[in-house]
């Protein structure tokens, strides 16, 4: 008897299998968690986030790193400073500032007013209105975290079952999640997961735990703390990796992975 999530006439249901055993580790994994990003490996989520940010949704927690003065408003300058604190270059941080504040200011502003914000602030309280199509579905429409969809990301797209996602696997996921007539959602997904890979990759892959902490934002604070303490952040992909392209096996593998997914 075929599994209830498989249909013979739709091969994608066979190729992209759901995490059918998630309920062995999590109670009711299809029920969204308001303020905890949980996984089968971390059923309690991030303890410090649960204690410090319990009054915020997981999506709000994701962006609080950029709201340093906790006033609920993220100015373009806040976005720039946040990306610089994460180790991104001046040019990339300026690019991220333009992309994020230009595209997401008005949707989040709608929680307060129909009038656009002339300062292009992103409003934490209305961040759920910035949820776009063609995404992973890990955040629901209110900004809660859906554990089942997070586990499905790996059961569907991590073909090596390594508990991590390569650039090629992320690219295939982005393509698989695309909705019709949704170019904004396609672009947003590419920017978000592309930036995530640039920040978190190690040996060409993003680990499941690092990605989980990206959803609740705690990894941003970890990176900032490591850089301030002089330890540095030893993951990610930057100009130094491009310069060393010829000598690094990781980058050859990465190129092959991306090209094979096109």
TrEMBL record:
<dbReference type="InterPro" id="IPR007736">
    <property type="entry name" value="Caleosin-related"/>
</dbReference>
<comment type="similarity">
    <text>Belongs to the caleosin family.</text>
</comment>
<dbReference type="Pfam" id="PF05042">
    <property type="entry name" value="Caleosin"/>
</dbReference>
<dbReference type="GO" id="GO:0004497">
    <property type="term" value="F:monooxygenase activity"/>
</dbReference>
<protein>
    <submittedName>
        <fullName>Caleosin related protein-domain-containing protein</fullName>
    </submittedName>
</protein>
<dbReference type="GO" id="GO:0005509">
    <property type="term" value="F:calcium ion binding"/>
</dbReference>
């Amino acid at each position: 008897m075929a599994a209830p999530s498989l249909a013979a006439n739709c091969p994608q249901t066979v190729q992209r299998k759901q995490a059918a055993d998630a309920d062995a580790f999590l109670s009711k994994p299809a029920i969204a968690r308001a303020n905890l990003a949980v996984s089968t490996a971390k059923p309690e989520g991030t303890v410090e986030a649960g204690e410090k940010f319990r009054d915020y949704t997981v999506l709000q927690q994701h962006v609080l790193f950029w709201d340093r003065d906790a006033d609920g408003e993220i100015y373009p300058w806040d976005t720039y400073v946040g990306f610089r604190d994460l180790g991104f270059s001046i040019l990339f941080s300026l690019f991220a500032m333009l992309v994020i504040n230009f595209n997401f200011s008005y949707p989040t502003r709608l929680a307060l007013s129909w009038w656009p914000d002339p300062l292009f602030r992103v409003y934490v309280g209305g961040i759920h209105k910035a949820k776009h199509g063609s995404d992973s579905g890990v955040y629901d429409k209110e900004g809660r975290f859906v554990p089942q969809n997070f586990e499905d990301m790996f059961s569907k797209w991590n073909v090596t079952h390594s508990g991590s996602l390569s650039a090629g696997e992320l690219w295939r996921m982005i393509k698989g999640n695309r909705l019709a007539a949704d170019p904004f959602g396609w672009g947003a997904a590419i920017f978000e997961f592309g930036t995530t890979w640039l920040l978190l990759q190690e040996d060409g892959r993003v680990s499941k735990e690092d990605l989980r902490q990206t959803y609740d934002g705690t990894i941003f604070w970890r990176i900032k703390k490591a850089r301030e303490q002089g330890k540095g952040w030893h993951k990610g992909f930057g100009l130094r990796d491009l310069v060393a392209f010829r000598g690094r096996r990781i980058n050859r593998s990465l190129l092959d992975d991306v090209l094979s997914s096109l």
